[in-house]
Design brief:
The protein has 69 residues and is mainly beta. The chain has one domain (3-68): SH3 type barrels, CATH 2.30.30.100. The protein contains one helix and six strands; from the N terminus they run H-E-E-E-E-E-E. It has one helix spanning 3-10, and strands spanning 18-22, 27-30, 36-37, 45-49, 55-59, 63-68. Strand 4 and strand 5 (55-59) form a beta hairpin. The longest helix has 8 residues, at 3-10. It is globular, with a radius of gyration of 11 Å.
């Protein structure tokens, strides 16, 4: 997965919900743009918040797919 692909999905206007699949097979739903943060000084990670508040710090190489929901 490339960080540009994730940025395009996260910054899409109007925003469309999507899910992230990790290389471990887990799915994380992103229902609002505030649930994903791609820090500029660290282009190799994504910080993701689940609806319930759980936070993930994922290496871009740990993201295997994006799916529109």
């Amino acid at each position: 997965m490339r960080v540009q692909e994730i940025q395009e999905r996260a910054n899409q206007v109007p925003f469309r919900a999507f899910a992230i699949e990790t290389t471990g097979g887990s799915w994380i739903d992103i229902e609002k743009p505030e649930q994903i943060f791609l820090p500029v000084p660290r282009p190799d990670i994504a910080i993701v918040f689940e609806k319930g508040g759980r936070m993930y710090i994922l290496g871009i190489d740990q993201i295997s797919a994006l799916e529109v929901r």
